[in-house]
Design goal:
homodimer
């Protein structure tokens, strides 16, 4: 798969809301981990953080469907 | 989000094939990293591996739409 077509690099908020809910946490993990260097990374902690982050992204995206997941990341700073 | 509803724990192959393609690599990462302890984990390597793995999962899943992502993992062993 092409890197740009099989990753959520340019996913819009509307696309996120419309995803199969079972992919919300993995996409959250992917997006929030970009530019991260895992150090003593622990999968359980990372995945639980993503499960917790998914509803925050949804909330942001429902308010701003024309936005992107990058806007969400920017909004956290 | 509930852990079982926002993660692909029980995702079927048909669901994977039907996903928004932009979530293929993140779901691949999630599924293949279960039970992994990241050590000197490096996000670039992990994410590129997932981009490469997505078409393998798709190929498996197109042949066996009634299967699950766990079946894919089992098939690799």
């Amino acid at each position: 798969a092409d890197k740009m077509t099989s990753t959520p690099e340019n996913m819009t908020c509307k696309e996120y809301v419309d995803l199969n809910p079972k992919s919300w946490a993995p996409v959250a993990l992917w997006v929030t981990s970009q530019d991260t260097q895992f150090k003593s990374g622990d999968w359980v902690a990372l995945s639980e953080q993503s499960v917790a982050e998914a509803p925050l992204i949804l909330e942001f995206c429902k308010k701003k469907p024309e936005g992107t997941l990058k806007d969400y990341l920017a909004s956290k700073k």
